[in-house]
Amino acid sequence: QHKKIRDTHKLIMDITQTMDGYLRQEDWRVNENSNIAYSFSGLLMHVGGSVIANYTLHNLYPPEVCLAHENGAFHIHDLSMGIVGYCAGWSLRQLLYEGFNGVCGKVESGPAKHLDTALGQMINFLGTLQNEWAGAMAFSSFDTYLAPYVWSDHLTYEEVKQRIQQFVFNLNVASRWGGQTPFTNLTFDWVVPEDLKEQNAFIGNTILDDPYGTFQEEMDMINRAFLEVMYEGDMKGRVFTFPIPTYNITEDFDWDAHNAQLLFETTAKYGLPYFQNFINSDLSPQDVRAMCCRLQMDLRELRNKTGGLFGAGESTGSIGVVTLNLARIGYLSKDEDEFLGRVVSLMDLARKSLEIKRKLISRNMENGLLPYTQRYLGTVDRHFSTIGINGMNEALLNFMGVTIATPEGRRFALRVLDTMRNELTGFQEETGNLYNLEATPAEGTSYRFARIDRQLFPSIITAGVEEPYYMNSTQLPVNYTDDIFEALELQEDLQRKYSGGTVFHGFLGERLPNGEACRTLVRKIASTFKIPYFTVTPTFSICPDHGYIHGEVEICECGKPTEVYSRVVGYLRPVRNWNKGKREEFKERKAFSVGDDLMVSPVPSTAQARTW
User: Of 101, 273, 329, 514, which one is least surrounded by beta carbons within 10 A?
Assistant: First the structure.
């Protein structure tokens, strides 16, 4: 009886602490995810998520997994949504052919016959499925699959742009629980992929006589419209954070096309796109669709998940992510064998947690907790279990006294990654499930690990002066170099080891002078380096009255404070919304320069809507 009273009292105290921590903004986790604004909806998510996280950790996982997470040995991501999957790439082809329907008691719609209907169904689909998954939702081949609808509707360019504008605005409304914008990613083929060129297109569920290869002109209209909308931003010139666009850079990419100029002007201004390098990396364009129908895969090798960190190919994705705290391993280890042994041991514990989660998600689907996932996916057999790393640079500093930029540090980092890849291959063969290695974004994890480690091990080396943090995955120290090509050279071999998602962010102090300079830079990176994914990311500011200002300008000339934007781990958010660790990282970041040959002409500070 006394124990029940004590437990009840503790529960009430925990709820009070959770509520007060949010309302008074005393808990750093209020800003853990910069996509969630301080709001009543954010409070609901914070409190509800805390309950789900606590339940998942203590009731569904064994004590050793729970302890490893709580003491910071590793981090189980998205515990606040711990009973559902992490991220998913959906088949746009399936949605267009079958419509948005099939869940008992819910409004149903048949296959879309017009572009505006198709885009509306995509918005409803992404918004609905976002509430059944913790992370990013993705569609591939957006331009290829929608091009026939433009042709069938006999749309003018202005009509296409109006529909795309409605689509983008609707995707940027904070409609997800927690006051979030749905986290969405779209992949654009730009030119019709080889595996779809001769495949007959369809509208609604009617198969056309014409293959997708005949609709390049309509694809160009879609790409132009999307880029113009993204370039112009909202009524105040504020960037549209979502959907994150990924562009496939293939051998037949037309660098001189009118749309290419627009793509690189938009990139120079906002740095929105991810570039998926199919010219000089280990990726193949067909991998985007390879897993939607291939159930029998060779588990003796690791497959590359396309789409970067926040995208995924059709009908694939990740059921969950566990990130290892390498900095602590480096601090505790005496030699390389001990270091690798600790990594393998933690990986085995991570595998145990991911196998439990996979069964849990499957059971929740079957029991009706995830009705739309059950309808459009039916199985998570094609989804990866993801293991990532954080703080390799600090691990090397604590373990060997060198950074990851040194030959000695890079050699050992590569050895660690190879060891992890071998272990993951073994996991696949043992379990029959897909595993991959990710350069985890770790928006909050890099700060959480460093805070815990400073408390437990006061002499441990971390990054940061006022606030501690660890460098993401195997990234260079943020203040190591301002030479983007030196950084690419040092990162190339490391980034190619990740099968699950990685990206090189080209952080620039301010925008490139024009699209021509940006095109030259992107082309040089894609053709010279084997980096699979990369961005060009300028820092910019938004004045509430005067709109876009290039560079980090905290006070506009008019005297009003601005919103300073940069990419936090992978998506654009105002720096003031970042958690303390990420703000410290931004403060220490040395922006890249790209050489005088690219910096050829000035640009105006305030952007005006441009006629292309």
Answer: 101
H helix intervals, 457-560:
484-495, 515-528
Domain assignment present for 349: yes
Asked if the model's pLDDT at residue 275 lies above 70, the reply is yes
- Specify which residues 110 forms β-bridges with: none
Domain membership of residue 553 (yes or no) is no
Contact 546, 558 (CB under 8 A): yes
Token pair recorded at residue 412: 């050992």
Residue 525 lies in a domain: no
Backbone φ and ψ for 572, nearest 5 degrees, come out as -85, 125
Considering the domain architecture, whether residues 208 and 239 belong to the same structural domain is answered as yes
Report how far residue 61's alpha carbon sits from residue 66's, in angstroms, rounded to the nearest whole number.
6
**For all residues of the chain together, what is the average pLDDT?**
87
Q: Are residues 166 and 267 in the same domain?
A: yes
The residue range of the domain holding 9 is 1-61
DSSP 148-164: HHHHHTT--HHHHHHHH
- E strand intervals along 162-215: 184-188, 200-203, 206-211
Average pLDDT over residues 13-24: 76
Total residue count of the chain as it appears in this document: 612
* Residue type (1 letter), 194: E
Same domain, 79 and 96: no
Phi and psi torsions of 324, nearest 5°:
-85, 140
Same domain, 111 and 239: yes
User: Do 334 and 462 fall into the same domain?
Assistant: yes
Query: Residues 135, 87: contact at Cβ < 8 Å?
Result: yes
Residue where a domain stops, chosen among 477, 501, 525: 501
Q: Are 194 and 252 in contact (CB under 8 A)?
A: no
Average pLDDT over residues 425-446: 92
High-pLDDT (> 70) share of the chain, %: 87
C-alpha 99/C-alpha 96 separation (Å) is 6
Cβ atoms 294, 311 nearer than 8 A: no
* Rounded distance between C-alpha atoms, residue 508 and residue 166, angstroms: 31
Of 576, 504, 506, 503, give the one whose Cα is nearest residue 536.
506
Contact between 530 and 504 (Cβ < 8 Å): no
Residue 273 token pair: 């796109």
Number of compact structural domains in the chain: 3
Least confident of 20-24, 242-246, 546-550: 20-24
Q: Which of 260, 290, 320 is the last residue of a domain?
A: 290
CA Rg, the chain, in Å? 24
CATH number at residue 422: 3.20.70.20
Section 401-430 average pLDDT: 98
Region label for 475, one of left (φ > 0), alpha (ψ between -120 and 50) or beta (otherwise): beta
Of 242, 299, 278, 339, the residue nearest 436 (C-alpha): 299
Q: Which bin fits 507, alpha (ψ -120 to 50), beta or left (φ > 0)?
A: beta
Q: 318 with 392, same domain?
A: yes
User: Does 528 fall in a domain?
Assistant: no
Token pair, residue 125, equals: 């689909």
The answer to whether 609 and 228 are in contact (CB under 8 A) is: no
SS3 378: coil
Neighbours of 483 (CB within 10 A): 15
**What tens digit of pLDDT does each residue of 480-528 get?**
999 999 999 999 999 999 988 788 999 987 668 889 999 999 999 999 9
One DSSP character per residue, 261-299 reads HHHHHHHHHH---EEEE-SSSS--TTHHHHTTT-----T
